[in-house]
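The instructor's notes for this session suggest beginning with a concrete chain rather than abstract definitions. Hand out the sequence below and ask the class to guess, before any prediction is shown, which regions might be ordered.
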Amino acid sequence: MSQIPLVDVKSQYAPLIPELERRFREVLESGQFIRGSNYWAFQEEAAAYLGVSKAVGVANGTDAIVIVLDAMEIGPGDEVICPAFTFYATAESIARRGATPVFADIDPTTLNLDPEDVAAKVTPRTRAIMPVHLFGRPAPMSELAQLGVPLIEDAAQAFGAPGVATVGAVATYSFFPTKNLFCLGDGGLVATSDVELGERVQMLSFHGSRDKTTFDFVGYNSRLDEVQAAMLRLFLTHLDEWNRGRRAAAARYAELGLGELVELPQDESGHIYHLFVCRSPERDRIRAALTEAGIASAVYYTTPLHLQPALRFLGNEPGSLPETERVAEENFSLPLWPGIPVETQEQVVDVVRSAVGAVLPRA
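After discussion, reveal the predicted structure:
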């Protein structure tokens, strides 16, 4: 087991355990575990934080996407453009609805959708574009909006990033325990300022009903449960502080000279660093050295979605998304969380320096 983890979630919530326990007791004493007072209050508080008129808590981030696609009546015969360099749930949700995921390449610097390639993929069957705010960096929403196609923002990794959820028709979130805003299990959210769409999402998440008596749609049983809502209400009040801590940790890696050894994620004011993902052709050597030193690391989307076995029916071939495939071969993430000790980051950089130094040509 690594001595230095990739993410130390417990260090974030440990100081809050007494308050978490108090809130848990309150839920127990209330006897309301589904759609109780915390469920409704968190939705209002999340909507206010995000600057939208409606937020709907659902069971997880994948359900959030599927329900949005259903609410927009996207299904068989329709196309949705999305990246292939993202978690499987993005394209899985599109395919689950019977629609066709159409993959566009990414910008090699931001790792988000390349608007020019997206524009080239738009057809008369395109019903939506689904940008992913990858690793906490906002996607190029203004450029994508100019294409005149509804935008469904997959913001699972970007709760709290400025501007997210305010340009697209709707945004979806995940509260998986390693996310910037997390719960102590599974949870998700849909955020929108489209009143009609928000109401439809609310009903679809509750069996297609407002009152569990009259059922207007064939819906889902997908609700954020009361205990998780109670915890999220507390965590939301600390989110800005946590995101500032992530940005400070990312800046410190640069100050320690890590950028001289590997390609760092390019900073911008809106990046909230859900993960700190670097690039290097010596990725495997670096990761081996980190593992030997007891330092956790990870790689992401090494088999991009357009090459995944379940999506072979789409007919994509290796080489069809060159930037996506190149990043898949070079990316790796380093430990980062709010409050990560300076000494820990120094140790990480020292190990990377030793690993890279072993292969640098002599002067």
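Then share the key points. The chain is about 40% helix and 10% strand. Residues 234 and 353 are 39 Å apart (CA to CA).
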